[in-house]
């Protein structure tokens, strides 16, 4: 029987001790712990990694603290466009959706793409039609309304600026949620979900739903979920790059993650981080920003939850 492990993230960026009140910090940590416990309990019960990452991400999507699902940010038009992806490390099957509106849990829809279609990625109206055909309920705009998100949007909606999440600077806010896990069978999985950028235009799509950029899983190497400035993560094909260093260069999980996040990304201005797990139950959570909402739990060990850089 293999070691089980699960890790989650809730976004990265300029997250400092001065940027959160004690009440906010407590709320974020409680939300992270709740999601990690949901996923870990499923793994303990012998459920597959795919189910654990999906349910952990659902928990984060349902919490308005995070820029995914219910907490998704506003677009230029004052609406919400969401992206998500999920991947199975055993079969390399993957499902992704992009630019959908009204879906309560985008990660569940991405799982349905695997189970009920011959495709990997569906977007926009077509993805929504697919959702209706498979009985997904749609939530009204009021479900996704959050006063804090609305305030964020109000500050930039009359400009051409876009804004990412979790920072004090308008152009450096990285809001995404994700989970990676390994089950008792040694199978890994990854899932990622996001509301994208505040005030985004033109149906912009980031790295979250692009397999190999923001999400990737392969039993032979690792499972990865990324959070950061998506344009850089797409250009660097971050998630697959980590996997390749393990597969072709025999890097350890930690070495591969640090090479990509702390070296390659930094060299051309990419900010953010990722969470990773391999079939042996090892976990890595590197980030080159000021902070990253993150948590993990291995087998019977205590849950680790953190927000800021460790000293």
From TrEMBL:
<protein>
    <submittedName>
        <fullName>Isoaspartyl peptidase/L-asparaginase family protein</fullName>
    </submittedName>
</protein>
<dbReference type="Pfam" id="PF01112">
    <property type="entry name" value="Asparaginase_2"/>
</dbReference>
<dbReference type="InterPro" id="IPR029055">
    <property type="entry name" value="Ntn_hydrolases_N"/>
</dbReference>
<dbReference type="InterPro" id="IPR000246">
    <property type="entry name" value="Peptidase_T2"/>
</dbReference>
């Amino acid at each position: 029987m293999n070691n089980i492990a699960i890790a989650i993230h809730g976004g990265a960026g300029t997250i400092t001790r001065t940027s959160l009140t004690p009440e906010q910090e407590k709320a974020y940590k409680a939300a992270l712990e709740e999601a990690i416990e949901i996923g870990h309990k499923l793994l303990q019960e012998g459920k597959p990694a795919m189910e654990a990452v999906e349910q952990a991400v659902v928990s984060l999507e349902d919490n308005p603290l995070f820029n995914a699902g219910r907490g998704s940010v506003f677009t230029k038009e004052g609406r919400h466009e969401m992206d998500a992806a999920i991947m199975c490390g055993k079969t390399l099957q993957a499902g992704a959706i992009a630019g959908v509106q009204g879906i309560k849990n985008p990660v569940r829809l991405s799982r349905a793409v695997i189970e009920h279609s011959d495709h990997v990625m569906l977007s926009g109206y077509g993805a929504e039609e697919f959702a209706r055909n498979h009985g997904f309920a749609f939530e009204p705009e009021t479900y996704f309304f959050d006063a804090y998100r609305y305030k964020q949007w109000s500050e930039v909606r009359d400009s051409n600026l876009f804004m990412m999440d979790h920072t004090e600077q308008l152009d450096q806010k990285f809001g995404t949620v994700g989970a990676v896990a390994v089950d008792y069978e040694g199978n890994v999985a990854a899932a990622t979900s996001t509301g994208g950028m505040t005030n985004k235009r033109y149906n912009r799509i980031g790295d979250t739903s692009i397999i190999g950029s923001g999400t990737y899983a392969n039993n032979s190497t690792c499972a990865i979920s990324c959070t950061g400035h998506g344009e850089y993560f797409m250009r660097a094909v971050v998630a697959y790059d980590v996997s390749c260093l393990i597969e072709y260069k025999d890097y350890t999980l930690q070495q591969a993650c640090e090479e990509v996040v702390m070296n390659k990304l930094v060299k051309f201005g990419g900010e953010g981080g990722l969470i990773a797990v391999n079939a042996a139950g090892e976990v890595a959570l590197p980030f080159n920003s000021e902070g990253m909402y993150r948590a993990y739990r291995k087998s019977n060990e205590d849950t680790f939850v953190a927000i800021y850089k460790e000293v």
